[in-house]
Amino acid sequence: MSAPQLRWGLLGASTIAREWMLPAMRALGHEAVAVCSASEQRGARFAAEQSIRNAYDDLEVFLADPAVEAVYISSTNELHEPHALAAAKAGKHVLCEKPLALDLDAASRVLDACRQADVVLATNHHFRNGAWIRAARDAVRQGAIGTPQAARISQALLLPPALRGWRLDTPARGAGAILDLTVHTADTLRFVLDAEIEQVIAASACQSLGRNGVEDAVMGAMRLSGEVLASFYDAFNVPCAGSSLELHGSEGSITIAEALDERLIANAVMRRQGGEQPLQMDQAEDLYVYGLRRFAAAVAGEGSPAADGQDGWCSLAVALAVREAAHAGRTVSVPPLHSCKRGDVLTSDVGLTL
Q1: 3-state per-residue secondary structure call for the chain
Q2: Quick one: which of 92, 34, 80 has its CA closest to 299?
Q3: CB neighbours of 324 closer than 8 A, spacing ≥ 6?
Q4: Residue 342 pLDDT > 90, yes or no?
Q5: How far apart are the first and last CA of the chain?
Q6: Mean pLDDT of all residues in the chain?
Q7: Alpha-carbon distance 33 to 10, whole Å?
């Protein structure tokens, strides 16, 4: 798989860009040539600290920089759509943080714009890049657990102090555990089970960190295609739980401790009636490095990104359905890709009960 060394522009002087994405870019020989921030001071400071040659506070000027081949968007959630649309219009390839947008109309516009501009679009659902997640998907596909029947996934963490800003108190920016964590939960289940999430039911709470009615915890159940049932728990306010994934089938089970963790510490086990053994997998690689390599190969016309724009659309559709279900107290059907037109609402249904 060919992976050209791309020149990147960073849209957002963010913590995730500094701590995860920049090291991954440099590990592959890519270069961050520019950063754009709404705050001139923040952008200039970020560029100086990270040895990035150009800092901009004007989006149009940033995107006109001929050195920028691809844009990594890690701005606040409400800016993902306009930033992605502007990048596509400028002919730049787009790697966007999740959620892809704040509603399905907006996400559809991003997909359409990137398709029309003939640029690569990827959503940074990096957890699917874990060697243990990919090995679990392969095992399920090969029938190692028989017919998939159920899954249980948990992503309960304590949000770091540096991130306890708009994520906890600003609904207009897409705050809350659902749009931050449940999108990853949805993507992981879709990926590992190779199935679509069709119905959800959920309850959310504002327990200790959330403010202004923003949820810091959500729990619920999902029905996937193939009559697979899944339960999930996502939270910002739990210090000692970690993350986990269980997959249960008619002939066996897979359990993965620390399944949704960037630190390469997952422990995956296959259980069948004859006993248990470690899940066989490739050597673990940094999740961001793996994703960037796939992205660069897609730019070169070889394969597709690890998680493309359609994956981002589908995980957002699930998250919005979970939010609706939690607020309305009823089962909500998840619309299939591109079925939600302007003015449509998610429809309630019967089938799951909490």
Answers
A1: CCCCCCEEEEECCCHHHHHHHHHHHHHCCCEEEEEECCCHHHHHHHHHHHCCCEEECCHHHHHCCCCCCEEEECCCHHHHHHHHHHHHHCCCEEEECCCCCCCHHHHHHHHHHHHHHCCCEEECCHHHHCHHHHHHHHHHHCCCCCCEEEEEEEEEEECCHHHCCHHHHCHHHCCCHHHHHHHHHHHHHHHHHCCCEEEEEEEEECCCCCCCCCCCEEEEEEEECCCEEEEEEEECEEEEEEEEEEEEECCEEEEEECCCCCCCCCEEEEEECCEEEECCCCCCCCHHHHHHHHHHHHHCCCCCCCCEHHHHHHHHHHHHHHHHHHHHCCCEECCCCCCCCCCCCCCECCCCCC
A2: 92
A3: 332, 346
A4: no
A5: 45
A6: 94
A7: 8
pTM higher than the cut 0.70: yes
Q: What is the pLDDT of residue 3?
A: 66
